Amino acid sequence: MQDIISKKSIGERLRTLRLAKDLSQAEISDILGLSRSHYSQVELGKQFPSYQVLSRASTFYNKDYAWILHGNDMEAVIANVKDVLTEEMQHEPSIEFSLNSQVGAVAPDSSTVLVRLNEYVTYEDRRQEQDYIKSLPAVSLPFAQLPDGSYRAFEVPGDEMEPVFYQQDIAIASLVSDHSKVILSNPYVIVSSKGISLRRVVSLSLKDSALVTIGDNKRYGSEILKLEHVYELWEVKAKVSFRLNKTINSISQYFHDFESTINALKQEVGELKQRAADVV
Question: The domain at 7-63 falls in which architecture?
Answer without folding.
Answer: Orthogonal Bundle (1.10)
